[in-house]
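Review form for a predicted model. The reviewer records the input and the model, then writes brief findings.
Reviewer: anonymous (R2)
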Amino acid sequence: MKRIKSILLASFTVAIIQSSTAQKMVVKGSDTVLPLAQKEAESYMKSNTNASVTVVGGGSGVGIAALVDGTTDIAMSSRKIKMDERLKLQEAGRAFKEVIIANDALAAIVNPTNKVSQLTRQQLEDIFTGKIINWKQVGGDDMKIVVYARETSSGTYEFFKEHVMNKKNYSSSCLNMPATGAIIESISKTKGAIGYVGLAYMEKDVKAISISYDKGKTFVKPTTESAKNKTYPVVRPLYFYYNIKVEKNVKPFIDYILSSTGQAIVDKVGYVSLK
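Model under review:
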């Protein structure tokens, strides 16, 4: 699996010299989907020289809000659209479509010096809700746990809360970070830290934790292989949402991502292809 470097910038723009008939589009939203969309856009524009694709991060909620106000053609999201967002789109007169473009394994990560290498789902819930506050409570050193999470507009924040924390609230001491790269940087410098990132963001500066969803009987490490064979329990779809009024413009790009070429990029970048 090809690992990608932490992305600290909030946005990234890919563009080419445009002709008068250029196919222009803006793709905005999830920081989890951002690196994948960047690579797909770069590859797409090489084979479609009249295309100009601008890819901007900011979080799933930011992307969907941009879809509501008409400032993006495609919203990237690492979670399913919420009911209140559906209503806002309806009120704005923006009928939309949902497309799953890839899957992603969500990894719990710690500092490489931490001797804890596996946790149950319940232990993760207790750590992120503040019930467990010291690593010695889960077999580690006598060291305070420092919890990092994404900000509330992040789809990863929502997904982790729903599927790992059993919809419990995060601890008031949890440190919310604006981007995935900031979580990796903080954990790499803090011995007692824990957080979560999409699998494609994993690098040597942090360590992934094996997770058990059967009360400690089996622990599975997040890898592309364990995500594909469904033995790793924390896998989620990644979404594109778009206004059907711009379907003619955006569908060639979406079809490219869903093609064998586009799905090969999914695997190469470190995500989990649909096929």
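Findings: The chain has two domains: 11-103+238-269, 104-228.
Further findings: The radius of gyration is 19 Å.
Recommendation: see findings above.
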